[in-house]
Design a protein that fits this description.
There is one protein chain. The chain has a four-stranded antiparallel beta sheet. It has helices spanning 2-6, 50-66, 86-99, 105-117, 120-132, 136-149, and strands at residues 11-20, 23-31, 43-49, 79-84. The model has no long low-confidence stretch (mean pLDDT 90). The chain is built from six helices and four strands, in the order H-E-E-E-H-E-H-H-H-H.
Length: 150
């Protein structure tokens, strides 16, 4: 993580907590760096847990494996923090923010596939819109509509 802070790029971390058997909670946080001088303390981007995370857990774990982040040995009640690349943090933050209020399993899977196929710039655009707009629910609803219709 110090490499991201020293390089002048935004820095992110994954906070994971095992709440119980098959009950993992993942959160993406942006941490202060030289690229974000306005950020004085870590800011939560998004989080997902429970049965919604179980639906997309395979894809999330595959993406984490690319960055050598393994959650396999996380025990009940244990929490840990791992640095994330900006690309992965953007995609996972958008995925978590988009899926958190959803209930329809088919739509969840469609949205997860759509975000997985997104380019870095597109994910950054949608996440920025969802985080900094006056009505982020409208932005997320529009993205859900686009991804589940395709």
């Amino acid at each position: 993580m110090t490499q991201a802070i020293a390089s002048g790029r935004p820095a992110y971390e994954l906070r994971s907590r095992q709440r119980g058997p098959s009950d993992l909670e993942l959160e993406v946080w942006q941490v202060p760096s030289t690229a974000t001088p306005e950020l004085k303390e870590p800011r939560r981007v998004a989080g997902l847990g429970g049965h919604k995370l179980l639906l997309v857990e395979g894809a999330v774990l595959r993406r984490l494996k690319v960055e050598q982040v393994s959650l396999a040995k996380l025990k009940k009640g244990e929490a840990r923090r791992d640095p994330l690349s900006e690309d992965l943090a953007l995609a996972m933050g958008l995925l978590f923010k988009l899926l958190a209020p959803m209930r329809n399993v088919a739509a969840i899977e469609d949205c997860a596939r759509g975000i997985d196929a997104m380019a870095r710039e597109e994910a950054a655009y949608w996440l920025g819109m969802a985080m900094h707009r006056k009505n982020p629910r409208r932005v997320l609803a529009a993205l859900r509509l686009l991804l589940s219709a395709s």
